[in-house]
Amino acid sequence: MTGQKDAGSGKDRGAEGTGGDSGHVVERKATFDQWRAIASRYALLPLRIFLGVTFVYAGLDKLTDPAFFADTGSGSIGEMMRGVRDSSAIPALVDLALNNPTGFGYAIAFGELAVGLGTLFGLFARLAALGGALISLGLWLTVSWQVHPYYLGNDLAYLMSWLPLLLAGAPVLSLDRLLAERRRIR
After folding, report:
1. Count of CB atoms situated within 10 Å of the CB of 64
2. Omega before 149 cis (within 30°)?
3. If you average pLDDT over residues 12-23, what whole number do you get?
4. Before 164, cis peptide (omega within 30)?
5. How far apart are CA 176 and CA 66, in angstroms?
6. How far is CA 50 from the centre of its chain?
7. Taking a C-beta distance cutoff of 8 angstroms, is the pair 97, 108 a contact?
8. How far apart are the C-alpha atoms of 70 and 51, rounded to whole Å?
9. Residue 60: CB partners within 8 Å, gap ≥ 6?
10. 144 secondary structure, DSSP code
């Protein structure tokens, strides 16, 4: 059928009998739609990787720094909490941490590690995102609260970054998805 003229327009119908380039346009649109669907499906993956790696790193950094767990001294959790107590949004939260700075430091470090690993592996992803959001919220209301202008403090940005993962979970490349598929098979 190549080379036949369309009776109505006088245009060459092409190999498939479609009008001119319209077959290519439809093909390009289908390719674009497929690419857009894939991009949408994987859109949260870079955020998951970034937050997961960052929180694993933060947890390990604290766990490998003996000065961090001290009640007093340079770089200690106790000194940091005393330094932000009067400028925090919720001084009572800082006071709670100051009751046992070492225990609070370990709770933060292991919490960050658990949140980071859960996020990276997509295991209990929404729970991990909730944990990450709560850690970020707590740090924003205490450690970062006095930062002006507010956008220079990173804890608020981390809090906002956790919200899409809290809402969507880890729908691709995750242990949650693998476990859900195994439950469906049974």
Report:
1. 9
2. yes
3. 58
4. no
5. 35
6. 7
7. no
8. 27
9. 113
10. S
Please, which contacts does 66-71 make with residues 24 or more away whose CB atoms are closer than 8 Å? 68/105, 68/109, 69/101, 69/102, 69/105, 69/106, 70/101, 70/102, 71/101, 71/102
* Structure-token pair, residue 78: 């106790």
Q: What is the pLDDT of residues 106-157, one digit of tens each?
A: 999 999 999 999 999 999 999 999 999 999 999 999 999 999 998 899 999 9
Looking up tokens 């906002």, which residue turns up? 160
Alpha-carbon torsion, ordered 109, 132, 161, 163, to 10 deg: 180
Angstrom distance (rounded) from CA 56 to CA 60:
6
> Tokens 């001084």 identify what position?
91
Task: State the pTM of this model.
Answer: 0.83
43-87: pLDDT as tens digits: 999 999 999 999 999 999 999 999 999 999 999 999 999 999 999
Question: 178: Cβ–Cβ under 8 A, 6 or more apart, which residues?
Answer: none
Spatial separation of the C-alpha atoms in residues 102 and 55, rounded to whole Å: 19
